[in-house]
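We emphasize that the prediction below concerns an isolated chain of 334 residues; any contacts that depend on oligomerization or on bound cofactors are therefore not represented. The input was used exactly as deposited, without trimming of termini.
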Amino acid sequence: MDVIDRRIVQCLLRDGRASFRRIAEVAEVSEQTVARRYRALVADGAVRVRALPRHGLYGDQTWLVRVQCRPDATDALADALAAREDTSYVSVTSGGSEVVCQARTGLRDQGGSVLQRLPRTAKVLGFDACAVMHMYLGTRAKWLAFDDPLTDDQAALLHASDPQRRATAGTTDPELRDDVAPRDQDAPLMAELARDGRAGVVELARACGWSKSRVSARLEELLAAGALRVAVDLAYPRFGFHAPAYLWLTVAPGRLNATGEMLSAHPETTFAAAVTGSANLLVTVTCRTMDDLFAYVTTKVGALDAVHQVDVVPVLHRLKQAGTRLRDGRLIPT
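Result of the prediction step, given as a token string:
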């Protein structure tokens, strides 16, 4: 990946639906070059952009599950978990003796959730589940660990031509009004955006059988209200990052929120959440090498007095990421 690819990806991480024109201004190349490079990154399984319902919109509860199993059964169990619609992240960790997955439970499960089925699986030696109490999803909570990050001027240029995005840039979790929440008739629009979060109005209108004006108005309404979140997923090894890890932290309760906010803003962080259990803060990080992971843990995490204990769990390989399957380090859209 060269500097142009990295600039395009960094623009997408900041605004997944930024126009090719605006990205071209930041990358200092033509709009046609940006479009061609982006399509090549998607075809190569390096990048995927999706627009998804906001977390908890349908009353689901998010869980982080650590499953200890027989080493000879790990891959098969992980693959079975990755195939489920109610899991979004599935990784093999701890040298191949543990599977970590992020799962959802809710009123729609009707007895078939991961948490209910795992204890009846003979391959499982034990498991531990913690509920997510709060996710840190603020405007600074983005993985941006490239060696050549965008400058402040470039980041400002990305939003300079879009007044509405500029006006809502500081909004992290707007209150969702009942009249704006997704409705049954939005199903075709939501399905297309889940497949391709950068789909344009013309493409969406054709797929949904709607008028362009209806698509444009409803899409703008859902995005502005926070009913949709634009998720940009990367195949990190394609960009030279080979050391992902889960950090299970035990933090003083009175300083939990401040610590979560602080860690979520680190460029290395891909996810941060306050969770139930003795390890009450989960942070996932993606570093280039194990040396970089060591430096992160000892300097950035180790400098925080509120952190009493850290369990560092390296990821051996990942089978599913943000709802997308991975194969040989590449994103495989379904």
